[in-house]
Inverse folding.
């Protein structure tokens, strides 16, 4: 590349730039000489830094002391809380043990109370199906006449007496609804048992085409427990097997010369299914007293369908077969 042609003007500019560069270099050297710290300045700066560090160290020491104090208090509180937790744990264990004992006592007392209530009802009869207002004002005399003329029981004691009789409290039913049950208290429980035995074998007692039925008076718990056996009892009737309900809720079945006792419906169902299988394998050894079509449900159907209502709730409906009257009056 060809060199630039030097003119007088360019020569002056170059000279000026060279002189100005020398001047700036000299001023930079002078400023560097003026700002260089002395030993005194260094000592003052060191002393200031030392003072600042000492102040901060003192503050850190105070903070550290406070932290140690707080940590000690926290440790003490933690120990106290741990002791309280241990005490609460001991009290909780003791409370659980007391609660378990109280639950056992409560369960025992409830059983005793239920037993006492059952004993207090031992002389009672529940009479269903009597039309409303049919008893008149003297319910005791009506019940006594109903028993003597309708059932005609034998071997009643010479002290046979209806102490009290009344309908279950409540509003009268709507037209067409089932009448309220009559509760009758007898003087002797043996007379009650005699009446129930007579009701099992006597012809159906009717008032205005309404069938009158007699039941023992059980507690709600016993009634519920017995109600759970309704379906299996129907299956036993269809098979022609003899059975009876024992107090409080125990099913007794007689089959093949043996007597079986069941405390739960599931046990009776399992036994009945085994007996049916054995009878089918042997060609039908079970002799039916009432040869009717079997209406028992399978186990799956029984689990899905709700339990049937108590026969007392269908007091106005006549039975399908008169032989099934043995299920109306339960033996104690």
């Amino acid at each position: 590349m060809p060199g630039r042609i030097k003119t007088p003007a360019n020569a002056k500019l170059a000279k000026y730039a060279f002189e100005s560069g020398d001047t700036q270099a000299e001023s930079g050297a002078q400023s560097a000489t003026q700002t260089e710290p002395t030993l005194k300045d260094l000592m003052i700066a060191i002393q200031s830094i030392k003072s600042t560090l000492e102040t901060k160290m003192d503050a850190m020491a105070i903070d550290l002391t406070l932290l140690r104090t707080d940590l000690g208090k926290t440790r003490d509180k933690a120990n106290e809380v741990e002791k309280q937790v241990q005490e609460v744990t001991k009290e909780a264990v003791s409370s659980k043990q007391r609660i378990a004992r109280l639950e056992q006592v409560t369960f025992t007392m409830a059983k005793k109370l239920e037993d006492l209530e059952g004993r207090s009802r031992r002389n009672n009869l529940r009479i269903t199906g009597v039309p409303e207002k049919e008893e008149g004002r003297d319910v005791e005399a009506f019940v006594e006449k109903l028993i003597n003329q309708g059932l005609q029981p034998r071997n009643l004691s010479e002290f046979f007496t209806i102490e009290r009789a009344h309908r279950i409290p409540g509003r009268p039913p709507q037209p067409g609804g089932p009448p309220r049950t009559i509760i009758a208290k007898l003087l002797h429980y043996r007379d009650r048992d005699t009446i129930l035995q007579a009701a099992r074998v006597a012809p159906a007692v009717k008032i205005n085409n309404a069938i009158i039925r007699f039941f023992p008076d059980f507690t709600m718990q016993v009634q519920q427990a017995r109600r759970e056996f309704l379906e299996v009892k129907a299956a036993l009737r269809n098979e022609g097997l003899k059975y009876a309900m024992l107090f409080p809720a125990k099913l007794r079945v007689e089959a093949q010369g043996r007597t079986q006792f069941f405390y739960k419906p599931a046990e009776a169902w399992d036994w009945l299914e085994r007996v049916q299988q054995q009878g089918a394998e042997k060609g039908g050894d079970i002799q039916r007293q009432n040869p009717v079509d079997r209406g028992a449900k399978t186990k799956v159907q029984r689990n899905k369908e709700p339990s049937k209502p108590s026969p007392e709730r269908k007091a106005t409906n006549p039975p399908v077969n008169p032989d099934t009257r043995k299920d109306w009056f339960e033996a104690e």
The longest strand covers residues 210-216. The beta strands are 124-128, 162-167, 182-186, 205-207, 210-216, 242-246, 250-255, 258-262.
